[in-house]
């Protein structure tokens, strides 16, 4: 959750990250970043740092028999993206913003919009006055619920995913990205960084 507000102690508007978790969590497996995201990271001045921590991956899909599936009519570069370890990316972004601008353990419950500012409601504190509020508080977003009533997350029963990052060992660098199996299963692996491989599998059951 980002807020931007004017502050007499700073010559420029101040940004803060209101983090619901008790700390910035360096957790997770790999995350894929496409060119549009990398362009924004370049604007922030950290694009090269992000690229240095990841691995360029060419998205490839295979059916259960091992036959390659590829959408025709696109340049090969359109299938490429950067895989990075999510913990490393989390830490880099927190350091770029400034750890002193991260307020952990802060639960935003909603907001009130005024003509000149936004009042951000905090579960265990006084409201925060801000010029701009960006609600990036996940699937169960309280900000989205306040902004668009009736948009609450819907339980997606019958879908399961397992992911992990492991040492690459002798695994061939090119790997595979996703293999489509039988009975609505999917699985694959790919290099996520130097010496690290991200693997995952998923299965789903039709919901009646």
UniProtKB/TrEMBL annotation:
GO molecular function: monooxygenase activity
Residues covered by the FAD-binding domain: 29-148
InterPro entries associated with the record: FAD-bd, FAD-dep_Monooxygenase_BioMet, FAD/NAD-bd_sf
Database matches in Gene3D superfamilies: FAD/NAD(P)-binding domain (3.50.50.60)
Range of residues in the leader sequence: none
Keyword Oxidoreductase found: yes
Pfam (any one): FAD_binding_3
PANTHER family: MONOOXYGENASE (PTHR13789), PUTATIVE (AFU_ORTHOLOGUE AFUA_6G14510)-RELATED (PTHR13789:SF309)
Protein name listed in UniProt: FAD-dependent monooxygenase
């Amino acid at each position: 959750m980002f807020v931007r507000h004017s502050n007499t102690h700073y010559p420029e508007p101040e940004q803060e990250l209101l983090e619901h978790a008790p700390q910035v969590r360096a957790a997770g497996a790999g995350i894929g970043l496409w060119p549009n995201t990398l362009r924004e990271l370049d604007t922030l001045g950290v694009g090269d740092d992000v690229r240095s921590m990841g691995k360029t991956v060419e998205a490839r899909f295979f059916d259960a028999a091992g036959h390659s599936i590829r959408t025709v009519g696109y340049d090969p570069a359109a299938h490429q993206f950067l895989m990075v370890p999510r913990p490393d990316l989390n830490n880099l972004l927190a350091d770029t913003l400034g750890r002193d601008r991260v307020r952990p353990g802060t639960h935003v419950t909603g907001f009130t919009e005024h003509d000149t500012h936004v009042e951000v409601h905090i579960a265990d504190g006084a409201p925060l006055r801000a010029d701009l509020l960006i609600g990036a508080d996940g699937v169960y977003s309280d900000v989205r619920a306040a902004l668009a009533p009736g948009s609450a997350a819907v339980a997606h029963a019958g879908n399961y995913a397992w992911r992990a990052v492991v040492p690459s060992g002798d695994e061939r660098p090119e790997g595979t990205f996703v293999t489509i199996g039988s009975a609505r299963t999917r699985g694959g692996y790919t290099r996520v960084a130097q010496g690290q491989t991200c693997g995952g599998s998923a299965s789903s059951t039709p919901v009646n």
